[in-house]
């Protein structure tokens, strides 16, 4: 039976998708607890007291590191790229970098990207993604010891990273099957996220983790997707046409009104494999994909768009923090959901044209949101919910989730600790000997 047409008729690539038939759509937190042991507050304090940890990792700030020398066994082999959000700079990662450097070990090269600082974030997700890809290639070329790569993106940086990995992606001749006997420890988390996508490489390196913090994966158009508008329909309609005057091409892309009416918005194309890039294959190449989402108090990015969920899937925001990770309230594993490529039907073309010229958005964002969700759910995700309801300054949630300024946003230290420990857990599982 012929496969449904892609959103671009000129694109013919359509990888097979599988999903564990016996697995629920999203597993309960008990599954998480069975494979990931959080460090207690006391244990975390002991980690911070270790004076040797500070020198165990290499960190760079937006400059290509010098070519590694000396004993190759002491050189970093895992590149962790930090990507900041809109109107920001590598300085946003100061606290997170310190924590990552302290606890991940000497095998990591932690690199805070600087190619899209400040106003460069307004030039479009695609342009920023290409600059980020070029920057990463320079790092890889000058650090010969690198073998693996991971990404950590905040806010718009998560979209920049998604575009960049498609630019950097190269397919592998071998497929990665979740039933391979060599899977280390048959990890529940890895099995729930693996697909039959070609394993592939990113910048010639093995892709390990792809993590985003409060990133607008579905754009910001629609009810409460841009929370500072308070869900007021008239404000949500008015802001779309004026956004480009403030944040340029990035604004049209986030509001899904970029390009010609008959061309799918960039964010929809980024939920598929199309002529612009193998976006889903690139995501599927990573061993682990994680989205951290603020369930409330985030004035910039709504819970739905940052967690890649439908509104009916949200439910009541959880409030009880996980043991050892303050404000991290829930973790679920969502295996891949089989689906054909996202569509851009004729009614969407008409709705987009209307949205580009009037304030009446009809059901355009609803059509696009459903298609983007179906596209992105073709790979598995771990979804981590964060709730700053008990923080002293809960309205700083968007900056607190990655501790932009420690003196002001320190409510997010538990979230950063969760990211660090998740990376350590994945690093341990990826280096276990095969059975």
From TrEMBL:
Family annotation (SUPFAM superfamilies): alpha/beta-Hydrolases (SSF53474)
Protein name per UniProt: DUF676 domain-containing protein
Compositional bias annotation for Polar residues: 55-72
Segments for region (Disordered): 37-75
Gene3D superfamilies: alpha/beta hydrolase (3.40.50.1820)
Organism name: Vicia faba
Domain DUF676: 74-305
Coiled coil region boundaries: none
Pfam families: DUF676
